[in-house]
Amino acid sequence: MKTNRRRFLKLSAGGLVGLSVGGVSLKAFANEQLDAENPQAKALQYTHQSEKEDANCANCALIQGTEGEEWRPCAIFPGKLVHSDGWCAAWAQKPA
Q1: Which of 15, 27, 72, 79 is most buried, taking the most CB atoms under 10 A from its CB?
Q2: Contacts 24+ apart (CB under 8 A), 5-8
Q3: Cα–chain-centroid distance for residue 1?
Q4: What is the chain's alpha carbon radius of gyration, rounded to the nearest angstrom?
Q5: In this structure, are residues 64 and 76 in contact, taking their beta carbons and an 8 Å threshold?
């Protein structure tokens, strides 16, 4: 099948719109704060307030999002936000 230039441009534009909407959807997906009673959180001993000196979600290699925000996405808890002062057993020091 021969693809003409107009069809190519339509498909490209549609792909860009899809990627843009998809990015917004993924960001909106991670908007629920993690409940410490969540079974996965309990299994990993997650707490909103770390009791470990110099070990919290803010300085963990698994934290995502913008530095300085109080609640941020975490790779361990998809679709959930963890508290920057929190901690869990999956904590790993950010590389220097």
Answers
A1: 72
A2: none
A3: 41
A4: 19
A5: no
Q: What is the pLDDT of residues 54-80, one digit of tens each?
A: 999 999 999 999 999 999 999 999 999
Q: What is the pTM of this model?
A: 0.68
Cβ-based burial of 48 (10 A; exposed 0-12, middle 13-18, buried ≥19): middle
**CB of 87 within 8 A of CB of 55?**
yes
Q: Above 60 in pLDDT, residue 25?
A: no
> How would you list the strands of the sheet with 80-83, edge to edge?
32-33, 80-83, 71-73
Contact 86, 45 (CB under 8 A): no
Tokens of 34: 């993690």
